Amino acid sequence: MKASRIAAALAALALAASAYAKDIQKLVLTPEPQMQCSSCENRIKKALKFEKGVKDIVTDLEQQTVTITYDADKTTPEKLQKALEKEGFASEQACQPQEGEQPAEEAQPEEK
User: Fold this and answer.
1) Average pLDDT taken over every residue of the chain
2) CA–CA distance, 59 with 42 (Å, rounded to integer)
3) Is the pLDDT of residue 57 over 90?
4) How many domains does the chain have?
5) Is position 107 within any domain?
6) What is the 8-class DSSP label of residue 89?
7) Do the domain assignments include residue 47?
């Protein structure tokens, strides 16, 4: 009897934990015009900082990228791009291949 209660309690905890699971995503954008200095980085971070669902913002001047970690249940890539546009930066989603994939320009066509 005691074992079945413990099993039921563990099952309930597992279900409750999965209900609170978040869909955390990463979005890599390339801003246009390019970021020139830390002031540009700060403007971008300030524009995105208060958007719902944004967890982290990493800018890279050398690579000209903005990596945004966000909760996909609370915001979308389009909303994040619009927030950047309000600050004067148009942006495109940077194509980043998954582990083991070739970049698009290096991908070989499949032979039939």
Assistant:
1) 80
2) 9
3) yes
4) 1
5) no
6) -
7) yes
Please give the Cα distance from 7 to 79 (Å, whole number): 43
Q: What beta strand segments (E) does the chain contain? A: 24-32, 54-60, 65-71, 90-93
Q: Using CA atoms, how far apart are residues 59 and 62, in angstroms rounded to an integer?
A: 9
Please report, for the domain that includes residue 54, its CATH number: 3.30.70.100
Residue with tokens 């070739």: 102
- The verdict on pTM exceeding 0.70 is no
Is residue 87 within 8 Å of 44, Cβ to Cβ? yes
- 4: pLDDT confidence band, cut at 50, 70 and 90? confident
> Residue 108 falls within a domain, yes or no?
no
Strand arrangement, sheet containing 54-60: 54-60, 65-71, 24-32, 90-93
Among all chains, which residue has been given the structure tokens 């290096």? 106
Residue 45 above 90 pLDDT? yes
Structural domain span for residue 67:
43-94
Q: What is the pLDDT of residue 46?
A: 92
Residue 70 lies in a domain: yes
Helix (H) or strand (E) holding 83: helix 77-86
Cα–Cα distance for residue pair 59/82, rounded to 1 Å? 17
